[in-house]
From TrEMBL:
It holds the Pfam family Beta-lactamase. This is Beta-lactamase/transpeptidase-like protein. Coiled coil: none annotated. The keyword Ubl conjugation does not apply. Keywords: Hydrolase. It comes from the Eukaryota. Belongs to the class-A beta-lactamase family.
Length: 426
């Protein structure tokens, strides 16, 4: 039975003094120089409450210009929410069933054929046949067994032994994500390529590329049509792109990172990664979030209201396997710099068919039932349906230590909720 429609309440506002405090904090945070240029947006479905973009497009090189609202970002895993929404649209149209194992068997035979990497006997890999069904639900909740090797999984050794081409490499194709699973589907949580596979499923079911599907069925529903959003590093996209950065010691340094997209062109994008492939602006991505919150509140849009509520509902397995999945999700959140102890254990988290959902109020302000995800280059979004706001906070830096960014994100969240009018916090 679908969840009841949310009760309408007054749209939240920022107090004048709260908005000034938020702006002062943001300016000071950028001025510290601990991060490259930063973007911050807070909005309701119909109004931007606060936005600011500050800093050099290339850190320490002001002669190359400042960031603005036309600046393109590498959004990486913030692509996952968009692909998940596309899957829910197909579900609404009766074209897919998230719990039907035949769907993966028939539409993604390359994935269905993958064995489970059970371990190693010395240097000899031990592979075994999968025995449990594999579904779209598993792909969308990171419980399929598909994994990223950069997180230190057993795939690191397998990739070295087989000469497997990295999915971040120029010209990477489907075979770059075609790797053994790490466990039986539905028994554990492992962040990985599940939503890249889900994106391929969208392409094959709809008979459109993800670029065309998103343009026709997602961006067209958003005011302004999110025109910056694309999988392709065109000349226009690269001409507006913020530089990627890394860190040497405590110093931020410009460097291409995992993929030197400034040296690529559209022909180099052989595969559209539904889990990590989008480029776009902070404003356009926030407009997409605003639209989803509007759908949740009962307005017709790219998803029906009852379907939109699935973005905020537990989609993990029931019982002990669900507890195992929540613990795995908690470990990922801890490694990503999240400070809340209840999130580290998974006790206050779950995962919907699209995002991580906190099941208890955040000490920094987010209400229980909020959903979030981010990109590895330090872009983060959240949707708080109880409060009635969405937020975007991000920069462009690739480093495996998330703590500095995590502190800044906590500070932003704290200032946002501290700036809300009292009625909006209730």
């Amino acid at each position: 039975m679908p969840a009841p429609a949310p009760t309408p309440k007054p749209a939240p506002k920022l107090t004048p003094e709260g908005k000034r405090a938020l702006d002062a904090w943001f300016k000071a945070e950028v001025a510290k120089g601990e991060h490259p240029a930063m973007f911050a947006i807070v909005a309701t479905p119909t109004e931007v409450l606060y936005e600011s973009a500050r800093g050099d497009r290339v850190f320490g090189q002001p002669e190359k210009g400042q960031v603005d609202w036309d600046t393109t970002l590498q959004l990486w895993s913030m692509t996952k929410l968009v692909t998940s929404v596309a899957c829910l649209q197909l579900m609404e149209r009766g074209l897919v069933d998230v719990d039907d194992p035949k769907l993966v068997e028939e539409v993604l035979p390359e994935l269905a054929a993958q064995p489970i990497l059970a371990g190693y006997d010395g240097d000899k890999v031990i592979l075994k046949k999968r025995t449990q069904p594999l579904t779209l639900r598993h792909l969308l909740t990171h419980t399929s067994g598909s994994a990223y090797s950069f997180l230190g999984t057993p795939l690191v050794k397998w990739e070295k032994q087989t000469g497997h081409k990295a999915w971040t490499a120029k010209g990477a194709k489907l075979d770059s994500i075609t790797t053994p699973l790490l466990f039986e589907p539905g028994t554990a949580f492992q962040y990985g390529h599940g939503i890249d596979w889900a994106g391929l499923l969208v392409e094959r079911v709809s008979r459109l590329t993800l670029e065309d599907y998103f343009r026709k069925h997602i961006w067209s529903a958003v005011p302004g049509e999110c025109r910056s959003m694309t999988f392709y590093p065109t000349r226009r996209t690269k001409g507006r792109m913020m530089g990627m950065h890394g860190r040497k010691g405590r110093r931020v340094v410009p460097e291409p990172g995992w993929r030197d997209v400034m040296a690529w062109d559209s022909m180099d994008m052989k595969f559209r990664f539904g889990g990590a492939g989008l480029f776009g602006t902070a404003r356009d991505y926030t407009a997409f979030l605003q639209h989803l919150l509007a759908c949740y509140q009962g307005r017709e849009g790219m998803l029906r209201p009852e379907t939109t509520r699935l973005l905020f509902e537990d989609a993990f397995p029931q019982g002990g396997e669900g507890d195992t999945c929540r613990k795995g999700l908690g470990r990922l959140m801890r490694d990503m710099g999240v400070s809340q102890p209840g999130w580290h254990t998974g006790a206050e988290l779950t995962h919907s068919l699209a995002m991580c959902v906190n099941t208890a109020d955040s000490p920094h302000g987010r209400r229980a039932g909020s959903a979030t995800w981010g990109g590895v280059a330090r872009t983060q979004q959240w949707i708080d349906p109880s409060t009635g706001i969405v937020a975007f906070f991000g920069t462009q830096i690739l480093e495996l230590d998330w703590r500095a960014y995590g502190r800044a994100l906590d500070g932003f969240e704290h200032k946002v909720y501290g700036a809300l009018e009292v009625g909006a916090k209730l």
